What we know:
Blueprint: E1 11-14, H1 19-30, E2 36-37, H2 49-59, E3 63-66, H3 74-79, H4 81-101, E4 106-110, H5 139-159, E5 164-168, E6 170-172, H6 185-199, E7 203-207, E8 213-214, E9 216-218, H7 219-232, E10 239-241, E11 247-248, H8 249-260, E12 265-269, E13 278-279, H9 284-288, H10 297-311
Parallel strand pairs: 1-2, 1-3, 3-4, 4-5, 5-10, 6-9, 7-12, 8-13
Antiparallel strand pairs: 8-11
Amino acid sequence: MTGPLDRSAAFYVAGHRGLAGSAIWRKLQTEGFRNLAGRTSGELDLRDRGAVFGFFAAVKPRYVVLAAAKVGGILANSTYPVDFLSENLRIQLNVMDAALEHGTERLLFLGSSCIYPKYAEQPITEDALLTGHLEPTNDAYAIAKIAGILQVQAVRRQYGLPWISAMPTNLYGPGDNFSPQGSHVLPALIRRYTEAVDGGSSTVTNWGTGSPRREFLHVDDMADACLHLLEHYDGPSHVNVGTGTDVTIKEVAGLVADAVGYSGDVVWDSGKPDGTPQKLLDVSALAASGWTAKIGLAEGIADTVRWYRANRDTVRS
C-alpha cells in the first residue's frame, strides 16, 4: 500500500532527538505533518514494555518511524556488546508489539548497514543478509538490527500490514554524537580536527590505517529517503539507503581538515582497528523507486562542521 500519507494523522517518531530521528522529525515538519508525537528517553523509556504500551494506547499513532536505538562507534560496540544487544532488542520488540496491538498502519524500521557480512561482495545488495560472518566489533548491535528486520517481515507475513525496513549507510550531520568514546568516524574526525585548530596543535592522530572505504549519507538525505519509501515502497525486503559511492577514511579526513581549516601533520595509528575493509551499499532498489541522494560529501561535511561549531557547547560529547 503506497501513496501520500495523511498529514493530519498521528505520527510517532521513536528516537526523535537522535541523529536520524531528529532529521526525520525536521523533514516531516517541513512536509506539513501536523500531529507529530515524540518523547525523550526521560519521558518514555522504550525498554519499559508497560510504559510503551501505555503510550501507544493513549496516542494510537497511524504511522511510526522506529529510529530509536542504542548506538555507538567501534569502541563502544566492542566494549559493551551486552548493552547493545539487550537494549536494542527490547526497544524494537516493545515498540513493534505495541504498534501491532494498537493498529499502527504504516511502520518504518530504521536499521544499519552493519547487518551485512564483514566480507560481503561489494557493492552490497539486500540479499547479502545472513550469508556470512558479521564484523566482530559490532556483531551484537548487528544481530539486534537483523532481528528488527525479521520482525517487520514476520508482521507482513502474519498480519498483512505494509510495514517496511530501511538500512542506511553511515550517517552524519546535525545532531550527531561527537563523544570521543561513543562517536562514529566522521563526527570523531570533526571534533578531533576542530580541537586541533582551536588548540593550535600541529599534529592529529587518527585510528587505523585510513585505508578502509566507507559510504556516507547526510541525515537530511536519509530523512527524505525514508518519507519517500513510506509513500512509494511496499515490499517484503528491507531497502538499502545510501549514495552508491564510497571514499577512503583518509579521503574523509582530508575533507574534514579542509572544512575546519587544519593544515598540520596527520599520523595514522595502525594499532587501532580498521573494522570492515569496505562497506558500500547497492542502492539500485531505492533508485528504482525514484530516489537518489542530493547532498554531496564535501558540502555535507562543511555543513556539519558549521553546525558543530555553532552548537558544540550543547552537543552530545
